Amino acid sequence: MLSPGIIFAIGSMIVIAVVDTFMRKATRALGSYFSSTIFIGLAIIPLLFLVAAFPPSGIAPIYLLYAVLGGLAYALGLVLVLKTLETEQASNTWALSNIGLIPIILLGAIVLAEPINMLELVGIVGVVFGSLMITITKDMKFNKRLLPAIAGNVLFAVYFIFSTYAVSQAHEEFTLIFPLAYLSAFIALIIYGTAKSTLKPAVKKLNKSNLLLFVVAIGLLGGVSQALWMFVVIFKTVALGGAIQVFEPALVVALAYLVYKERLTPLQSIGIIISLAGALAISLL
Question: Does residue 138 lie in a domain region?
């Protein structure tokens, strides 16, 4: 019988795969900045239900700092990934997400002085070479338009490090971490949009796009995925949960084929398999 933590991890992986797949439609209609702002803002709502269900007594300043820093990294990371999604397929854009495992391993090695064993090293090489193969077009050229997605996934790793550590250490304050991270991200994007005068035109574009209900549903599901992952941390199944999350890019590839009829080149398909194998080698340790 599966443990509750594993069930939550599977649920989180499936939900985020659906969200990532359907983000393509909204992003191409509304642009990366405004799509990120809407998705992050709406994702706060499901997370607030957790706060209501498990009301915290407060939050230590250090965990507040972790939440804010993680949220800022997530905001920039999502904008960058969706910048790639404006022009590229959902399949090869999100197939690069496993590259975020590498900064986590390197952080442990450099900051915490954790040794990197041979299996981890093989996993890192697999993720790097697999991701590189994903970026090669059918004309055997490097696809520079995937670079923002690579940078974005590195920033997602920063968000994961801050938020997961804070949730695991905060005890009764844990329900505030993800909502505060998302709120910080949302405020930062609103400030940017206001300063650049891009917010009002984007709202008008949304009103004309007939995508309001679609975007709301995707944004809320994004928050549900984060809420499910919070319970993965609480049940102390992050390692196995991380191994399950590794399969999310493969699920996106399948969904993108069904929804958009996206096809990968043979080289890109092999790259996804190699990257998946490398990520499993890392996360199952």
Answer: no
Q: Is residue 46 in a domain? A: yes
54 Cβ neighbours under 8 A, 6+ residues apart: 172, 174, 175
Q: Are 82 and 35 in contact (CB under 8 A)?
A: yes
pLDDT in tens, 88-118: 999 999 999 888 877 777 766 665 566 667 8
Residue whose pair of structure tokens reads 């439609």 in the numeric block: 25
Beta bridge partners of 136: 142
Q: Is 136 helix (H, G, I), strand (E, B) or coil?
A: strand
Contact status, residue 97 vs residue 86, Cβ threshold 8 Å: no
Tell me the three state secondary structure of residue 52. Answer: helix
Quote the tokens at residue 96: 């690069």
Q: Is residue 206 part of a domain?
A: yes
Please report whether residue 197 resides in a domain.
yes
Report pTM.
Answer: 0.89
Task: Encode 66-105 in three state secondary structure.
Answer: HHHHHHHHHHHHHHHHHHHHCCCCHHHHHHHHHHHHHHHH
Please name the residues in contact with 196: beta carbons below 8 A apart, sequence gap of 6 or more.
none
User: How far, in Å, CA of 152 to CA of 155, rounded?
Assistant: 5
Residues sharing a CB contact under 8 Å with residue 30, sequence separation 6 or more, in sequence order: 38, 202, 205, 206, 209, 211, 215
Give the separation between CA 180 and CA 25, rounded to whole angstroms: 28
Number of domains forming the structure of the chain = 1
